[in-house]
Amino acid sequence: WIGRINALKRQLTDDDYLRAIALGFEELRQWGTTTVCNLEAFPELLPRMPRPPLRTWWFLELIDLRSRVETEALLRGALSFFEGREGWLGGFGLNPHAPYTASADLYRLCNECGRRFGMPLTTHIAESAEEEAMFARGEGPLFDFLRKLGRPMDDCGRGPAFSHAVRNGLIGPGWLLTHANELSEPDFGLIAAAPGGWHI
After folding, report:
1. Is 96 helix (H, G, I), strand (E, B) or coil?
2. N- to C-terminal Cα distance for the chain?
3. Separation CA 6–CA 119 (nearest Å)
């Protein structure tokens, strides 16, 4: 399904995305939504976008499947993403996409940016059975797909995705976690033991 989504995205223009965003805001307002967290994969659209009509938190989506992101490059990119948006309702944060598309180094850099600039952080975690098979057992279609893309797979086969990310300091309380569909008993123990709780 990842390949299918990426193929569909390649068919869309910037204008298609801008129209979709405007329609999305219109629909959200009709249903009484007051606040949106948007994971923004195309930050180059923001200069063309009018001020959002709803309180919107824009999270810059970050993926480094094949290359390591240097600290200074990440900080420069994050700051340029936020420039010129004064007066927008909401704010800006960082989204290392998921443990299978963002490296441990990238998660650590996002944690550093979050602390340094007071930015919220979000990520996809424990989204699917395929992700769990990849991290818990080092197998499955997602494992095979990403290995073919050249992703290092040395973090696989070491336990559930959520537990692995927590124990390695990638995520912690205060993160806004998306999905969490495939949590296991070890995961529930970590959630229960965390001071301050989690945002899932």
Report:
1. strand
2. 24
3. 28
- Encoding tokens for residue 23? 């329609």
Judged on CB neighbours under 10 Å (0-12, 13-18, 19+), 48 is exposed
Identify the burial level of 3 via C-beta atoms within 10 angstroms of its C-beta, where 0-12 means exposed, 13-18 middle and 19 or more buried.
exposed
Q: What is the distance between the alpha carbons of residues 175 and 154, in angstroms, rounded to a whole number?
A: 24
Per-residue pLDDT of the chain (200 residues; tens, 9 = 90+): 777 888 888 899 999 999 999 999 999 999 999 999 999 888 888 888 889 999 999 999 998 886 666 656 666 666 676 777 777 889 899 999 999 999 999 999 899 989 988 899 999 999 999 999 999 999 999 999 999 999 999 999 999 999 999 999 999 988 999 999 999 998 998 888 887 777 87
